[in-house]
Every structure is written in structure tokens, then in C-alpha cells.
Amino acid sequence: MGLPLSKYVWFDGKFVTLDKANVPITTHAIHYGTSVFEGIRAYWNGKNLHVFRLDDHIKRFRRSGQFYNISLNFSDKIISDAVIGICEKNKIKQSCYIRPFYFIG
After folding, report:
1. Cα(85)–Cα(82) distance, rounded to whole angstroms?
2. Rounded Cα–Cα distance for residues 73 and 90 (Å)
């Protein structure tokens, strides 16, 4: 059983449909696993979606890239807005798992 995919993703600083978020086969991350990810939970209470400790997750997300010496080219505010925005754009009305990642292109 596969996971349901969202219609929209945040890719290279923009909200795009999933089919537009393409990565070239020559991307370094595909060959060598040079990527950074974070796992974020969001909980639906029947009325609102609450993203758990988003600021802490974003800080750890940014620090993780330091191990590869790669920098995240977006501010913490932009990343935070993107996480919240993608949940809103996809009209998430249930608890979910959010998995932002970045990689060397």
C-alpha cells in the first residue's frame, strides 16, 4: 500500500504540482545520497491543523545541512511559511507527516 501523494509540493521556492517537481537523473543526491531531511508531525483537531514544534524542526533541518557543508538558501521564515502553506494549499484536514528535504543538485 502506497502513501497518498499531495497534489502540490514546495519545490525550489515555489508551490508547484507534483508532476512539475522534476529532478535530473544526474543530481548528486541520487548518486551519493547527499540530502538532508526532517520529519514533522502535524495534528488535526477537527477544526485546525497544528504543526508540532515547527520552529525547532526548521532549526534542526538547517543545522543538519552543515554536516554536508550545504546551506539552505531560504530563511527560516520562508521555510516555515512553506510548510504551513503547502498544508493549506493541499487542504489537509487530518493529522499528517511532513517531510521537507534539500539536496545537492
Report:
1. 5
2. 24
β-pair partners for 44: 49
- The predicted structure's pLDDT at residue 71: 86
Indicate the helix (H) or strand (E) that contains 7.
Answer: none
Q: Over 28-91, what HEC string results?
A: HHHHHCCEEECCEEEEECCCCEEECCHHHHHHHHHHHHCCCCCCCCCCHHHHHHHHHHHHHHCC
Percent of the chain with pLDDT over 90: 77
Comparing C-alpha atoms, which of 35, 24, 38, 101 is closest to residue 68? 35
